[in-house]
Amino acid sequence: MRSKLFVPASRPELFEKAARSEADAISFDLEDAVDEARKHEARAVLSAHLEAPRTHDKLVLVRVNALATEHFKQDVEAIVRTGLDVINLPKIESPEEILAALSHIELCEARHGITEPIRILANIETPAGLQNASASAAAHPRVMGLQIGFGDLFAPLGIRQSNSFAIAQTRWSVRIAAAQAGIDAFDGAFVNISAPDDFVADAQAARAMGFTGKSCIHPSQLRLANEVFRPTPDELAHAVDVTRAAADAGARAVGAFVVNGQLVDGPFITRAQRIVEQARRDGLLVD
């Protein structure tokens, strides 16, 4: 999920455009992008869309309203359909909140005969959420990733979103929390859609910390995100060399070896294997 495009659930005229876009994933939004007065309407429109046959192969997510709101249960009841892959839970602050949300999700799955468990993407966007990110990441096997919400986290604290130190510290904490649970970390949105070069620099900084992808709020950001979060030709070539050498070394019971002048052992082999797998998914590499 290199790129994830936010689409307001109250804007059905954008649904098919999103399906034809370059996004790896579509994230329909029932939370911030939908006015309070239109929540019910947006739920109904989105529910009908999720029940219709899928016309694309993108990952489908829905960001619901927070667990503590009056809208959460209504959101879940409306969207738990066969056309949904992931529920994005905003403002998660503890593993107990994830388990409480899952309890209602499971009831709706049983009611609608959903046999493929819907996964969870947990948003880290409050001080308590950041403090408890590791526990939340490991709360349940259905949690597939953590995602940063810079705006909700920084604005109430008076931290500017241009503060590179705060951004780096937050990314580090979320990335390590996700790594501890063996799941992915996804970067938050870059709100200035008129500054593509700054978007690229921001995405590159996230990728350098091991993030898998980035939220996009405009279609113009999708191609940029896809390019940043795919392996470079040099990275891919080295990863292929490492995986081939690892297979040979394994056959000869060698624990560490040298590839292209670099010492390679377990963690580097794992990283190379992930790069090769991603390149296959992206169509950059065939067997």
Lateral arrangement of strands in the main beta sheet = 1-2-3-4-5-6-7-8
Net shape = globular
Low-confidence regions? none
Radius of gyration: 20 Å
Mean pLDDT: 93
Oligomer: single chain
CATH architecture annotation name of the largest domain = Alpha-Beta Barrel
CATH class of the largest domain: Alpha Beta
> How would a textbook summarize the main sheet?
8 strands, parallel, barrel
CATH H-tier superfamily of the largest domain: Phosphoenolpyruvate-binding domains
Give the structural class. alpha/beta
Cα(first) to Cα(last) distance is 22 Å
Please report the total strand number as a whole number: 10
How many individual helices? 12
List keywords for this structure.
single chain, 287 residues, alpha/beta, TIM Barrel, 2 domains, 8-stranded parallel barrel, two-stranded antiparallel ribbon, 12 helices, 10 strands, globular, Pyrv/PenolPyrv_kinase-like_dom, magnesium, lyase, Pyrv_kinase-like_dom_sf
